[in-house]
Structures are given as C-alpha cells and as structure tokens.
Amino acid sequence: MTFDSIIIGAGISGLVAAYRLKRMGRDILLIENSNRVGGVIKSEDAEGFLIERGPNSLRGTHEFLDLIEELSLIDELVTADPRAPAYVYVGGKLHPVPMSPPAIIKTKLISGSAKLRLLREPFIKARNENGEESIASFVRRRLGSEILERLVAPFLSGVYAGDPERLSVQACFPKLVEFETETGSILRGALRGMRAARKQSEKPKRSLRPYRLCSFRQGLHTLPKALATSIGDELLTETRVVNIRMNEAIDQSATSPRYVMAIEHLNEKKIVGAMTLIIATPAFAASQLLNECASEVASLIADIPYVSLASVPLAYRVDQVAKNLTGFGFLTPRSERLRILGSIWTSSLFDERAPDGWICTNNFIGGATDPTAIKLSDEELTQTVHADLSKVLGIRGEPLKLPITRYQQAIPQYNIDHAARVLKVESALRNQKGLWLAGNYLRGVSLGDCIKQAERIAAEVNRMVEQRPR
Q1: Which of 235, 329, 354, 470 could make an S-S bridge to 347, C-beta 3.0–4.6 Å?
Q2: CA angle at residue 289 from 262 to 405, to 5 degrees?
Q3: How confident is the model at residue 204 (pLDDT cuts 50, 70, 90)?
Q4: For the chain, counts of helices (H) and of strands (E)
Q5: Rounded mean pLDDT of 327-332?
Q6: Ramachandran region of residue 157, left (φ > 0), alpha (ψ -120 to 50) or beta?
Q7: What's 22's DSSP letter?
C-alpha cells in the first residue's frame, strides 16, 4: 500500500501531525512501536491520587486551544490559577519568583547589589565573538552571577533538567541573543519588542493568561487518547519498523512512493510506501530508523545528548505539612545543597488530584548535574526526596509512597553547538525530499512547542502532496 504520508511515532508530535493531515484529507498511516499512544504522557490513578508519569501540565498556546476545541475537549480542560506563584528555595525560605519590575524591587530572593547590577544591563557592551555561548556565560555578562544562581539556573532545572554551563543561549533563548545583537541590551530589545507588538493592528484572538498552565480532568493523557480516537484505523500500535529505504525506481507519477519500508504488525510482515515521511520519535530512535535512507540526517541527530530523570510523587496528610501549599511549587538552586531539582504541588494546581485531606507533590531528581540519581533504589529516592521536602516544607511523619517513574533518556539537551547542529539538520532535510523530523530535540522541548511544530509540518506535507503530478 502507498500513502500520502507515513508518520512514525505516536507521541504528541506524531499524533498531532497525523490528526491534522487526516483532517486535510490526506491518506495517512501512523505507526507506533509500543501498545499505547502518547509517548511520555501518561496519567495514572494511584490509590486515589491522579498522578502524571511524564509532563505534569502544559501552557495554553493558541495551537493547543484550537486543537482541543476541534476535539470537543474544552469541557474537560482544567486550568491553574494564573496568579499561583512559583517559588525558589534560597537561604532556608521559599521566595515567590518576581514577575514584574515592582516585584523585583521588593523581592528578598536577590540582594540589593544584584538589583543594582540589573540596572547596569543596558550599559554593558554586547558580545562580538562568533560561535555559541553558554547560558551561564551570557547571564553572568549581562545580569550578574546572583541572577544566574537564584533565578536562571533553577528555571533551567525545571525546563531542561540541564546545566547552564553547557546549555546554549542561542539554542534555548534565541530572542535574548537577538535583543543583544540588535540593540546591545536585553532590556532595550524587550522594550522595543513590546512597542512593536502594541503597534500591530491585529490583536490576538484570545488572552492566554487564564491558560498559563493546563491539564484535563482525567489528566494529560486525555489529549493523546482523543487524537488517537479521531485518527482511528489509520493508527497501528505494536508495529515495528524493520527498515526504511528510498525507492530507487521512483518516477513522477502520483502513485510512486518515495519511501518504502518493511513493517511488522502482530507477527505479520508488510511492505508499505509513502510520498512523504514524518519521523516523530526521540532523536536516538530517529537516527536508527534513518540510517539507511537518510544517513546524513541520521548522523547529525545521533549524538544529541539526553539527561536521565526520576519522578518521585509523594503524598501527605494536610496536617503533616507546616507550610501552606498554595502555588505551583518550588525550584532549588544547586547551592542550597538539596538533591531534588524541584517540586510541583499538583493538588494545589488542579482540582481532584488528591482525596480530601491530602496533598500530592511530584518531585524531580537527576538531570545534567546529578546523572547518578536515577540509579538509586526506590527506597533511596523516596527517602532523599522526603528529607528535602521535610526541610523545605516542615513535614512531620512519613509520606504515602506513589509509583516512581525513571527515564534514562528524558529531556534532550540544547548544549553549545546545538543551534549550529539544527541549521545543518535543516540543510540536510532540504536535500532529502519528502522527509520531516518532528519532536522536542531540535527547536523547543515543551508540549506546546511540539504541537506548534507538528501543525507546521502537517501544513508543509500537505502542500507537497497537493503539488504532486496527477
């Protein structure tokens, strides 16, 4: 059989691309190796607690909200209070992250000297060196070491579980680099961008503030489940791709496939072909799949690094916790000598995450600065996390243990030279007609980024299919 497009990988990227192409009237096949969809998105009921064994929430982007409206999921959507503070633990106290200039002036999270250092930012000379720069170097130059340690590094732990000394500012925060390059200052660049946005005649169709953090009543897995239902029989789970090769006999007819692959589904081997191919797996899996048919692309993405991470959810009775857990949760600078990267207060963010009288936290340990953490036993992980939470939140007594999740390759790292790698990958893809890469390892690690990129890829694939000879 020959399809307009074959999509490999039924995580959020593959599901959205397949769903959108099907809505466009394309003949598609979505292939998933495992017996479930959603990739790392996995919601689970554990002893009456609704826990997430992957991402815990996502930001309500326009693409995401449009998608769930189409899927009739608006009534299932739950949102966190946009005023819910996030905290950083410094000096034995939880400090709300300042989100406005007045809040920066008042905060005790950073010292008076660090605040004065911020005022110097517009007068600091811009970097004129070639090549990529680490986030740590960039922030030290422009904002100072204390801002790096107490604000930026904890944020990077929450997003990338990464090391700011290795992460590339060009890859992670290209807008900040653009501000410095074009105006010589982050502050001046941001102000110019705000003025330009106000001058735009077309206003956004909705305010995204109420959708700062989103989930669903039954957890995030509601979204991939609904997408899979809509895709229907065009989705094959428990299907292994044996190999992919280019069709050397391709001609200009509408029925001649560009890519031919052998697949195995329920012990039955088949040969399928497609005009276009979307690989929506992690980088290491995509590299193996493309080794024969697109070796240059495969080699470029083969060594994209990933970090390991463990998710350790713990529950407590309300009377066990001294602190009032109202807010998103907290992050911790490495200088505070806690082993956890941060804690999300899931039962504070969304309703019906915990039985009455209980609170539920989801805690993360590992990442680039603690690569051996994932090797700890369940009991060691539990005790380590519980000890850190007890210190920060004033917890008395023992926790209720919930299922721990380990990811050996959890989050791709946009380390120095990643931006250059992305340009090389995109150049190689232009020479590899009909091939797209979807996922979180090139331009954006969040679920919102993945949805936006999958929508863009689907539109590009549709245009190529429409332009084929009839």
Answers
A1: 354
A2: 115
A3: low
A4: 17, 19
A5: 96
A6: alpha
A7: H
pLDDT tens for residues 276-309?
A: 999 999 999 999 999 999 999 999 999 999 999 9
Query: CATH 1.10.3110.10: which residues of the chain?
Result: 99-199
> Which residues have CB under 8 Å from 139's CB, separation 6+?
147, 148, 152, 164
Q: What is the largest CA-CA distance in the chain?
A: 72
CATH code, residues 99-199: 1.10.3110.10
**The pLDDT value given to residue 364:** 98
- Cα distance between residue 465 and residue 470, in whole Å: 10
> Which residues lie closer than 8 Å to 243 by C-beta, 6 or more apart?
261, 262, 292
Structure-token pair, residue 344: 């999300």
Tokens 């000297």 locate to 113
Domain(s) labelled CATH 3.50.50.60 in the chain stretch across: 2-39+221-304+414-466
The residue length of the chain stands at: 470
**Closest by alpha carbon to 275, among 95, 470, 94?**
470
Q: Which residues of 277-295 are buried (b: 16+ CB within 10 A; e: fewer)?
A: bbbbbbbbbbbebbeebbe
Average pLDDT, the chain: 95
Contact call for residues 333 and 149 (beta carbons, < 8 A): yes
Cα separation of 334 and 360, whole Å? 24
The model scores a pTM over 0.90: yes
Higher pLDDT, 297 or 468: 297
Per-residue confidence (pLDDT) for residue 441, from 0 to 100: 98
Distance CA 132, CA 416 (A): 6
Percent of the chain at pLDDT above 70? Answer: 97
pLDDT of residue 206: 84
CATH architecture of 2-39+221-304+414-466: 3-Layer(bba) Sandwich (3.50)
Query: And the tokens for 265?
Result: 């589904």
User: What's the confidence (pLDDT) of residue 242?
Assistant: 96
What number of CA atoms fall less than 13 Å from residue 289's CA on the CB side? 26
Given a cut of 60, whether residue 214 has pLDDT beyond it is: yes
Which 3-state string (H, E, C) describes 304-362?
Answer: CCEEEEEEEEEEEEHHHECCCCCCCEEECCHHHCCCEEEEECHHHHCCCCCCCCEEEEE
Cα–Cα distances in angstroms (integers) from residue 36 to residues 46, 125, 273, 445, in the given order = 19, 52, 24, 21
Give whole-number Cα distances, 189 to 62, 123, 168, 178, 271, in Å: 25, 13, 20, 8, 53
| pLDDT for res 379 | 98
